[in-house]
Automatic annotation (TrEMBL):
InterPro entries: Bact_solute-bd_prot1, SBP. Residues 1-23 form the signal peptide. The keyword Transport applies. Belongs to the bacterial solute-binding protein 1 family. The keyword Transport applies. This is Carbohydrate ABC transporter substrate-binding protein. Gene3D superfamilies: Periplasmic binding protein-like II. Keywords: Signal, Transport.
C-alpha cells in the first residue's frame, strides 16, 4: 500500500475524501513544508508547544535544552523534552496507545525504522529540504534511516565517531612514530616499530558486564567497511548475505592478524576480556607508557585520567583508523552512530519547525561549547567546539568518503546485542571464525532479513 493511501483523512463526504487524498499525494517531496494528513498523535496542533522524547538525560539533556533556547525565543515555540532511559519500550507503548510525542529522538536506527514501518513517522522529504540536507550532512548518514523503497524517515541530531585511534602525545612522539598512516598496511608498520621498541602497540579492553564483546564487534565492523565497502556492509547488516559469508570470515582474519600477533596487544588477546573497556586507555598514560594506541569512539576521552582531560590538546593525539589499500574498497569510511530525530505528528507546523532546526547545521552551538557533542553536518561552525581534539575529530569525519552506523545497532537485537557479542568472546578464546560466524548466522531471527 502506498504512503498516500495510508494517510488518515477525516472528511464529511466521499468527494471531499477524494480531493484531500489527491492533494496529499500531489505534495512534492523536498518542498520544505508539511504534507498534512501524516502520522498524528493526541497532542494539540499549532498550540505553540512541541513535545520531544529521547533517551539522553542529565547534563546532556541540559545542553540539549540550552541549544533550543534561542530558537524558542525567536519562534515563540515551547519545546518540552522528556528523557526516558527505557526509550525503546516507552516509544512503542506510547505510539501503540496513540500517545506518541510530537518528535522522537531515536538512539538507534532500528527503533526508528520499526515505527516507520508502522506508519507512525512522517517521511522527512515532506517537510525538509533534502537537497540542502544531503549537501551538509556527512555522506551516508541518512542511509540507516532509509527504507527499502528509498524513503527517509529521520535525520541526525548528533553524531558519534568510532573510527579513531588515540595515543599519548609525549610517549608517541618520543618514539618518532607516524601520526598520519594512510592505509592499514601503514598502521601495521607502525605497530611493528612500536613492538621493536619493546612496547605493546595496542591498548585494548572488552569487558563490559553483560555487554562484554561489543568492542570486538566494532573491530569486525571496521574491517568489513574497509575491506569490502559500504554496499557489502549494508548487505551484511541487513542479512542480504549470510553472517558466515566468506567476506565476513576475511574481516575476522584481518582483525585476527592484529589481535593475535604476539606482543601486539597489552596483556595478550585473552586478557582483553578482563580489562574494562573504560580502563583500556589508562596504561598509555603510565610512566613509561605500557601501550600506545587505542581504537575507540570519541567518548573515550571521558574515561582518561582527570589530569589528562584537563589538558587534552597537549596530552592526547588522534588519527583516523585508516583505509585499506588492497581490498575491494579503498576509500576512507567512518564507523559511528548518532541520534536520529523523527516527526511523529505530521500535521503540526510547530513540530515541523522544530525538526527543521534540530536537523540543521545551525543546531547545537551551546552543546558543542559544553563538550561531548558532535554535529553530523560537515558545515557546522567548528570554532564552537571547546578544544582542538574535538575539532580534529569533526575534520576527520568531514574528510571521510562515507559514514556507516554501527552494524550491531542495525541488526536484530538478538544478534547485534546478543550472539554477535558472545561470538566475539568465543572467538578471542580460540573458536574459529567459521564456527563463530556460522553460530551467529543460525541465531538470526526467522523473518528478519532476506536470507532468514
Amino acid at each position: 500500500m502506498t504512503q498516500c493511501m495510508r494517510r488518515k483523512v477525516a472528511a464529511t463526504s466521499l468527494a471531499a475524501t477524494g480531493a484531500l487524498l489527491l492533494a496529499g499525494c500531489l505534495q512534492q517531496p523536498g518542498s520544505g513544508s508539511g504534507s498534512g494528513f501524516g502520522p498524528d498523535n493526541a497532542e494539540t496542533d499549532s498550540d505553540g508547544v512541541v513535545t520531544i522524547l529521547g533517551a539522553f538525560g542529565g547534563a546532556e539533556a541540559e545542553a540539549f535544552n540550552a541549544s533550543l533556547e534561542e530558537f524558542e525565543e525567536r519562534t515563540g515555540i515551547d519545546v518540552e523534552y522528556t528523557s526516558d532511559q527505557d526509550f525503546t519500550n516507552t516509544i512503542r507503548a506510547r505510539t501503540g496507545s496513540g500517545q506518541a510525542p510530537d518528535v522522537a529522538i531515536f538512539p538507534q536506527p532500528g527503533g526508528l525504522m520499526e515505527q516507520a514501518a508502522a506508519d507512525a513517522v512522517q517521511p522527512v522529504d515532506l517537510y525538509l529540504d533534502m537537497a540542502s540536507l544531503e549537501e551538509t550532512l556527512v555522506p551516508g548518514f541518512l542511509d540507516a534511516a532509509t527504507d527499502e523503497d528509498g524513503r527517509v524517515y529521520g535525520a541526525p541530531m548528533r553524531m558519534a565517531v568510532k573510527s579513531l585511534v588515540w595515543y599519548p602525545q609525549d610517549a608517541y612522539a618520543a618514539g618518532g612514530y607516524s601520526t598520519e598512516p594512510e592505509t592499514l598496511d601503514d598502521l601495521a608498520d607502525i605497530a611493528q616499530q612500536i613492538r621493536d621498541d619493546g612496547v605493546a602497540p595496542w591498548c585494548m579492553g572488552w569487558e563490559s558486564d553483560q555487554a562484554t564483546g561489543w568492542v570486538g564487534t566494532d573491530w569486525i565492523e571496521e574491517y568489513m567497511l574497509r575491506l569490502h565497502g559500504p554496499e557489502v556492509y549494508d548487505q551484511w547488516t541487513s542479512h542480504e548475505i549470510p553472517f558466515n559469508d566468506p567476506r565476513v570470515i576475511e574481516a575476522f582474519d584481518a582483525y585476527g592478524d592484529l589481535i593475535f600477533e604476539d606482543g601486539n596487544v597489552l596483556g595478550g588477546p585473552s586478557n582483553v576480556l578482563a580489562v574494562p573497556f573504560s580502563e583500556a586507555i589508562l596504561p598509555a598514560f603510565e610512566e613509561p607508557a605500557e601501550c600506545l594506541m587505542e581504537r575507540q569512539g570519541n567518548f573515550i576521552t571521558g574515561f582518561m585520567p582527570s589530569e589528562i582531560q584537563a589538558n587534552l590538546d597537549s596530552e592526547v593525539g588522534l588519527f583516523v583508523f585508516p583505509r585499506s589499500a588492497s581490498g575491494d574498497y579503498t576509500d576512507q569510511p567512518i564507523l559511528g552512530g548518532g541520534d536520529l530525530a523523527a516527526l511523529m505528528n505530521g500535521d503540526d507546523p510547530d513540530s515541523i519547525s522544530v525538526m527543521q532546526f534540530l536537523t540543521s547545521d545551525s543546531f547545537g552551538g551551546p552543546w558543542a561549547q559544553a563538550g561531548g557533542w558532535l554535529s553530523p553536518h560537515s558545515t557546522f561552525d567548528a570554532s564552537l567546539y571547546p578544544d582542538e581534539l574535538t575539532r580534529r575529530t569533526a575534520e576527520i569525519v568531514a574528510d571521510a568518503d562515507v559514514f556507516r552506523f554501527d552494524g550491531s545497532d542495525l541488526m536484530p537485537n538478538a544478534v547485534g546485542g546478543g550472539t554477535f557479542w558472545t561470538g566475539m568472546v568465543d572467538w578471542v578464546n580460540g573458536a574459529s571464525a567459521e564456527d563463530v560466524t556460522t553460530a551467529i548466522e543460525e541465531s538470526w531471527p526467522v523473518g528478519e532479513g532476506e536470507d532468514s
